[in-house]
Amino acid sequence: MFKVDHEQAKGFEPIKPGEYEVTVVNYELKKAASGNNQVVMDYEIRSDFEQPCQGQKILFDNFTVTEKAMWRFHAASKAAGMPNGKQYKSYKEWAEAMLNQPLRLVVGEREHNGKKYPQVNGFKLSEAPLPDVPTVDDSEVPF
What we know:
13% of the residues lie in helices and 36% in strands. The chain contains two helices and five strands, in the order E-E-E-H-H-E-E. Strand 1 (18-31) and strand 2 form a beta hairpin.
């Protein structure tokens, strides 16, 4: 059964310009309108760290594969703590390595059709502690 409760109708607060601790939660390989390859990343604002907008997503961060835009790949990789000099066979392999990585985003705003949306303007190393991951001893596994 489901009962409507207007007191629970809160919605999300808008993501304002600032810095947010996030993890990479999704990516998609696409073609840009220009015909160039793109990796489109989605992030989730971490809930395990006290900050505004916890659990909300910042979507559609485009990494366009061009010589001029490669700085974004390098900046995101550095912020995610990937080793300097690490080589990837493809942009898909790079995107896979970015999944679940914590980093800190510098977020601004862009306007489209009269609405404001968060836009990733920069990348920094995470300043938040990594979440506690429970460890399991072999003796606790039933098989």
